[in-house]
Ribosomal RNA small subunit methyltransferase A
Amino acid sequence: MNRIMYKKHIPVKRFGQNFLKNDIIIKKIIQSMNLNNFDNVIEIGPGLGALTFPICEIIDKITVLEIDENIIFFLLCHKYNKKMNIILTDVMKFDFRYFFSLKKDVFYRLVGNLPYNISICFFLKMILYNLHIYDMHFMFQEEVAYRLLANPGHKKYGKLSVMAQFFYRITPITPVDKFDFFPKPKINSIFLRFVPYNHKYDDYSIEKYFFALELITRTAFQHRRKLLKSNLSNIFSEKLLLKLNIHSFFRAENVSVYQYSLLVKNFLKSYT
Ligand code: SAM
Protein backbone atom coordinates (compact mmCIF):
# COMPACT_ATOMS: atom_id res chain seq x y z
CA MET A 1 0.00 0.00 0.00
CA ASN A 2 1.53 3.35 -1.01
CA ARG A 3 -1.06 5.65 0.58
CA ILE A 4 -0.32 6.92 4.06
CA MET A 5 -2.75 6.50 6.94
CA TYR A 6 -3.80 9.53 8.93
CA LYS A 7 -5.24 8.82 12.36
CA LYS A 8 -5.95 5.22 11.20
CA HIS A 9 -7.74 6.48 8.06
CA ILE A 10 -6.51 6.47 4.46
CA PRO A 11 -7.52 9.84 2.95
CA VAL A 12 -9.77 9.40 -0.09
CA LYS A 13 -8.77 11.70 -2.93
CA ARG A 14 -12.10 11.61 -4.76
CA PHE A 15 -13.79 12.96 -1.62
CA GLY A 16 -11.32 15.84 -1.43
CA GLN A 17 -10.03 14.62 1.93
CA ASN A 18 -7.40 17.12 3.01
CA PHE A 19 -7.71 17.16 6.78
CA LEU A 20 -6.88 20.23 8.84
CA LYS A 21 -4.04 19.47 11.22
CA ASN A 22 -2.82 22.84 12.52
CA ASP A 23 -4.31 23.40 15.99
CA ILE A 24 -3.59 27.14 15.90
CA ILE A 25 -5.61 27.56 12.69
CA ILE A 26 -8.39 25.33 14.04
CA LYS A 27 -8.59 27.47 17.19
CA LYS A 28 -8.67 30.67 15.13
CA ILE A 29 -11.51 29.29 12.98
CA ILE A 30 -13.58 28.18 15.97
CA GLN A 31 -13.06 31.50 17.79
CA SER A 32 -14.06 33.45 14.69
CA MET A 33 -17.43 31.66 14.66
CA ASN A 34 -18.33 33.07 18.06
CA LEU A 35 -20.49 30.06 18.93
CA ASN A 36 -23.20 29.80 21.59
CA ASN A 37 -24.20 26.47 23.09
CA PHE A 38 -27.73 26.70 21.63
CA ASP A 39 -26.58 27.44 18.04
CA ASN A 40 -27.91 25.17 15.29
CA VAL A 41 -24.72 24.21 13.50
CA ILE A 42 -24.46 22.09 10.36
CA GLU A 43 -21.05 20.91 9.30
CA ILE A 44 -20.34 19.85 5.74
CA GLY A 45 -17.79 17.05 5.65
CA PRO A 46 -16.71 16.62 9.29
CA GLY A 47 -13.94 14.20 8.30
CA LEU A 48 -11.92 13.15 11.32
CA GLY A 49 -13.43 15.89 13.47
CA ALA A 50 -10.75 18.62 13.24
CA LEU A 51 -13.49 21.26 13.49
CA THR A 52 -16.35 19.07 14.73
CA PHE A 53 -14.88 18.05 18.08
CA PRO A 54 -13.81 21.55 19.20
CA ILE A 55 -17.31 22.72 18.18
CA CYS A 56 -18.82 19.88 20.26
CA GLU A 57 -16.95 21.25 23.26
CA ILE A 58 -18.98 24.47 22.96
CA ILE A 59 -22.40 23.58 21.62
CA ASP A 60 -25.13 21.10 22.59
CA LYS A 61 -25.80 19.51 19.23
CA ILE A 62 -24.31 19.58 15.73
CA THR A 63 -25.59 18.07 12.50
CA VAL A 64 -22.81 16.62 10.35
CA LEU A 65 -23.23 15.64 6.70
CA GLU A 66 -20.61 13.21 5.46
CA ILE A 67 -20.29 11.05 2.34
CA ASP A 68 -17.61 8.59 3.49
CA GLU A 69 -18.97 5.52 5.33
CA ASN A 70 -15.63 4.86 7.05
CA ILE A 71 -15.71 8.34 8.52
CA ILE A 72 -19.30 7.86 9.63
CA PHE A 73 -18.22 4.73 11.50
CA PHE A 74 -15.32 6.65 13.09
CA LEU A 75 -17.70 9.43 14.22
CA LEU A 76 -20.21 6.95 15.64
CA CYS A 77 -17.47 5.48 17.83
CA HIS A 78 -16.31 8.87 19.13
CA LYS A 79 -17.00 10.08 22.67
CA TYR A 80 -19.01 13.02 21.25
CA ASN A 81 -21.33 10.74 19.26
CA LYS A 82 -24.37 11.79 21.31
CA LYS A 83 -23.75 15.43 20.47
CA MET A 84 -23.65 14.69 16.75
CA ASN A 85 -26.64 14.18 14.48
CA ILE A 86 -24.68 12.16 11.94
CA ILE A 87 -26.06 11.91 8.41
CA LEU A 88 -24.51 9.78 5.69
CA THR A 89 -25.17 11.75 2.51
CA ASP A 90 -23.80 13.44 -0.54
CA VAL A 91 -24.41 17.13 0.21
CA MET A 92 -24.95 17.81 -3.48
CA LYS A 93 -28.01 15.55 -3.33
CA PHE A 94 -29.09 16.26 0.24
CA ASP A 95 -32.63 17.64 0.54
CA PHE A 96 -31.93 20.86 2.45
CA ARG A 97 -35.45 22.12 1.70
CA TYR A 98 -36.93 19.22 3.64
CA PHE A 99 -34.30 19.42 6.38
CA PHE A 100 -34.91 23.14 6.96
CA SER A 101 -38.69 22.62 6.93
CA LEU A 102 -38.43 20.30 9.96
CA LYS A 103 -37.86 23.17 12.38
CA LYS A 104 -39.65 26.47 11.92
CA ASP A 105 -38.00 29.82 12.64
CA VAL A 106 -34.56 28.35 13.13
CA PHE A 107 -31.51 29.99 11.60
CA TYR A 108 -28.66 27.65 10.89
CA ARG A 109 -24.96 28.23 11.08
CA LEU A 110 -23.03 26.29 8.45
CA VAL A 111 -19.37 25.42 8.58
CA GLY A 112 -17.11 23.35 6.39
CA ASN A 113 -13.64 22.79 5.15
CA LEU A 114 -15.27 22.09 1.80
CA PRO A 115 -13.97 19.36 -0.49
CA TYR A 116 -12.37 21.35 -3.32
CA ASN A 117 -14.13 19.39 -6.09
CA ILE A 118 -17.64 20.50 -5.07
CA SER A 119 -16.95 23.78 -3.26
CA ILE A 120 -18.28 26.23 -5.87
CA CYS A 121 -21.34 24.14 -6.85
CA PHE A 122 -22.21 23.58 -3.21
CA PHE A 123 -21.80 27.26 -2.38
CA LEU A 124 -24.10 28.27 -5.26
CA LYS A 125 -26.64 25.60 -4.26
CA MET A 126 -26.86 27.00 -0.73
CA ILE A 127 -27.81 30.51 -1.89
CA LEU A 128 -31.38 29.32 -2.44
CA TYR A 129 -31.65 28.43 1.27
CA ASN A 130 -30.39 31.75 2.59
CA LEU A 131 -33.64 32.51 4.36
CA HIS A 132 -32.83 29.66 6.79
CA ILE A 133 -29.21 30.62 7.27
CA TYR A 134 -27.68 32.89 9.89
CA ASP A 135 -24.14 32.59 8.55
CA MET A 136 -21.74 30.24 6.79
CA HIS A 137 -18.03 29.66 7.36
CA PHE A 138 -16.26 27.89 4.55
CA MET A 139 -12.73 27.05 3.51
CA PHE A 140 -12.00 27.68 -0.16
CA GLN A 141 -8.90 27.19 -2.21
CA GLU A 142 -7.09 30.51 -2.48
CA GLU A 143 -7.88 30.93 -6.17
CA VAL A 144 -11.64 30.51 -5.55
CA ALA A 145 -11.54 32.80 -2.50
CA TYR A 146 -9.91 35.55 -4.60
CA ARG A 147 -12.72 35.23 -7.15
CA LEU A 148 -15.36 35.38 -4.42
CA LEU A 149 -13.81 38.56 -2.98
CA ALA A 150 -12.73 40.33 -6.18
CA ASN A 151 -13.76 43.91 -6.87
CA PRO A 152 -14.87 45.38 -10.21
CA GLY A 153 -11.97 46.02 -12.56
CA HIS A 154 -9.93 43.13 -11.16
CA LYS A 155 -9.11 40.25 -13.46
CA LYS A 156 -10.59 37.78 -10.96
CA TYR A 157 -13.90 39.69 -10.87
CA GLY A 158 -16.49 37.55 -12.62
CA LYS A 159 -19.82 35.78 -12.33
CA LEU A 160 -18.87 34.09 -9.06
CA SER A 161 -17.83 37.42 -7.44
CA VAL A 162 -21.11 39.07 -8.39
CA MET A 163 -23.26 36.11 -7.33
CA ALA A 164 -21.46 35.84 -3.98
CA GLN A 165 -21.35 39.55 -3.17
CA PHE A 166 -24.97 40.11 -4.21
CA PHE A 167 -26.19 37.55 -1.68
CA TYR A 168 -23.60 37.82 1.14
CA ARG A 169 -21.40 40.12 3.13
CA ILE A 170 -18.11 38.25 2.89
CA THR A 171 -15.29 38.54 5.41
CA PRO A 172 -11.94 36.78 5.09
CA ILE A 173 -11.13 35.14 8.44
CA THR A 174 -7.69 33.64 7.92
CA PRO A 175 -5.35 32.40 5.22
CA VAL A 176 -4.56 28.70 5.62
CA ASP A 177 -1.28 27.34 4.34
CA LYS A 178 -1.17 24.08 2.36
CA PHE A 179 1.14 22.69 5.06
CA ASP A 180 -1.76 22.99 7.54
CA PHE A 181 -3.50 20.04 5.85
CA PHE A 182 -2.89 16.33 5.55
CA PRO A 183 -2.37 15.26 2.84
CA LYS A 184 -0.89 18.56 1.65
CA PRO A 185 -2.91 20.01 -1.26
CA LYS A 186 -1.19 21.85 -4.12
CA ILE A 187 -2.39 25.32 -3.15
CA ASN A 188 -3.14 27.41 -0.08
CA SER A 189 -6.66 28.16 1.16
CA ILE A 190 -8.60 30.99 2.77
CA PHE A 191 -11.31 30.61 5.40
CA LEU A 192 -14.26 32.98 4.81
CA ARG A 193 -17.41 34.07 6.59
CA PHE A 194 -20.64 34.70 4.66
CA VAL A 195 -23.59 36.57 6.13
CA PRO A 196 -26.68 36.56 3.89
CA TYR A 197 -28.37 39.85 2.98
CA ASN A 198 -31.82 38.46 3.64
CA HIS A 199 -33.63 41.77 3.62
CA LYS A 200 -33.46 42.02 -0.17
CA TYR A 201 -36.30 39.80 -1.26
CA ASP A 202 -39.35 41.94 -0.64
CA ASP A 203 -40.61 42.19 -4.19
CA TYR A 204 -39.60 38.82 -5.64
CA SER A 205 -38.58 35.43 -4.27
CA ILE A 206 -34.94 34.55 -3.72
CA GLU A 207 -35.27 31.95 -6.51
CA LYS A 208 -36.24 34.67 -8.98
CA TYR A 209 -33.31 36.86 -7.91
CA PHE A 210 -30.97 33.89 -8.14
CA PHE A 211 -32.00 32.75 -11.60
CA ALA A 212 -32.17 36.30 -13.02
CA LEU A 213 -28.71 37.16 -11.67
CA GLU A 214 -27.30 33.84 -12.88
CA LEU A 215 -28.61 34.49 -16.40
CA ILE A 216 -27.42 38.10 -16.52
CA THR A 217 -23.92 37.45 -15.15
CA ARG A 218 -23.46 34.33 -17.30
CA THR A 219 -24.40 36.30 -20.41
CA ALA A 220 -22.39 39.37 -19.38
CA PHE A 221 -19.16 37.51 -18.64
CA GLN A 222 -19.45 34.97 -21.49
CA HIS A 223 -17.19 37.12 -23.70
CA ARG A 224 -15.18 39.12 -21.17
CA ARG A 225 -13.38 41.25 -23.73
CA LYS A 226 -16.53 42.29 -25.58
CA LEU A 227 -18.50 45.39 -24.69
CA LEU A 228 -21.28 44.72 -22.22
CA LYS A 229 -23.92 46.40 -24.36
CA SER A 230 -23.36 43.79 -27.10
CA ASN A 231 -23.20 40.82 -24.67
CA LEU A 232 -26.49 41.91 -23.11
CA SER A 233 -28.16 43.25 -26.27
CA ASN A 234 -30.79 40.48 -26.26
CA ILE A 235 -31.85 41.34 -22.72
CA PHE A 236 -31.40 45.12 -22.16
CA SER A 237 -31.57 48.19 -24.39
CA GLU A 238 -28.58 50.52 -24.52
CA LYS A 239 -30.88 53.26 -23.23
CA LEU A 240 -31.61 51.31 -20.06
CA LEU A 241 -27.92 50.54 -19.50
CA LEU A 242 -27.10 54.26 -19.78
CA LYS A 243 -29.87 55.10 -17.33
CA LEU A 244 -28.10 52.83 -14.80
CA ASN A 245 -24.78 54.58 -15.50
CA ILE A 246 -23.49 51.55 -17.39
CA HIS A 247 -21.64 53.39 -20.13
CA SER A 248 -21.40 52.14 -23.69
CA PHE A 249 -17.63 51.44 -23.35
CA PHE A 250 -18.12 49.23 -20.23
CA ARG A 251 -17.18 45.57 -20.16
CA ALA A 252 -18.79 43.10 -17.75
CA GLU A 253 -15.90 43.56 -15.31
CA ASN A 254 -16.52 47.33 -15.01
CA VAL A 255 -20.05 46.92 -13.63
CA SER A 256 -20.49 47.00 -9.85
CA VAL A 257 -22.52 44.46 -7.88
CA TYR A 258 -25.00 47.24 -7.15
CA GLN A 259 -25.43 47.94 -10.87
CA TYR A 260 -25.96 44.20 -11.49
CA SER A 261 -28.63 44.27 -8.80
CA LEU A 262 -30.37 47.12 -10.67
CA LEU A 263 -30.21 45.07 -13.86
CA VAL A 264 -31.80 42.14 -12.02
CA LYS A 265 -34.65 44.33 -10.75
CA ASN A 266 -35.28 45.73 -14.23
CA PHE A 267 -35.19 42.24 -15.68
CA LEU A 268 -37.70 40.92 -13.13
CA LYS A 269 -39.96 43.90 -13.65
CA SER A 270 -40.04 43.39 -17.41
CA TYR A 271 -40.12 39.59 -17.64
CA THR A 272 -42.21 38.36 -14.71
N1 SAM B 1 -13.64 18.92 8.21
C1 SAM B 1 -12.54 18.02 8.09
C2 SAM B 1 -11.24 18.77 8.34
O1 SAM B 1 -11.28 20.00 8.26
O2 SAM B 1 -10.23 18.14 8.57
C3 SAM B 1 -12.52 17.34 6.72
C4 SAM B 1 -12.42 18.25 5.54
S1 SAM B 1 -12.12 17.42 4.02
C5 SAM B 1 -11.44 18.77 3.08
C6 SAM B 1 -13.72 17.29 3.25
C7 SAM B 1 -14.69 16.33 3.92
O3 SAM B 1 -15.91 16.34 3.17
C8 SAM B 1 -14.24 14.90 3.96
O4 SAM B 1 -14.56 14.34 5.20
C9 SAM B 1 -15.04 14.22 2.84
O5 SAM B 1 -15.24 12.84 3.03
C10 SAM B 1 -16.33 15.01 2.89
N2 SAM B 1 -17.04 15.05 1.60
C11 SAM B 1 -16.51 15.07 0.36
N3 SAM B 1 -17.48 15.14 -0.57
C12 SAM B 1 -18.64 15.16 0.10
C13 SAM B 1 -20.01 15.21 -0.30
N4 SAM B 1 -20.35 15.28 -1.60
N5 SAM B 1 -20.98 15.18 0.65
C14 SAM B 1 -20.65 15.13 1.97
N6 SAM B 1 -19.37 15.08 2.40
C15 SAM B 1 -18.38 15.11 1.49
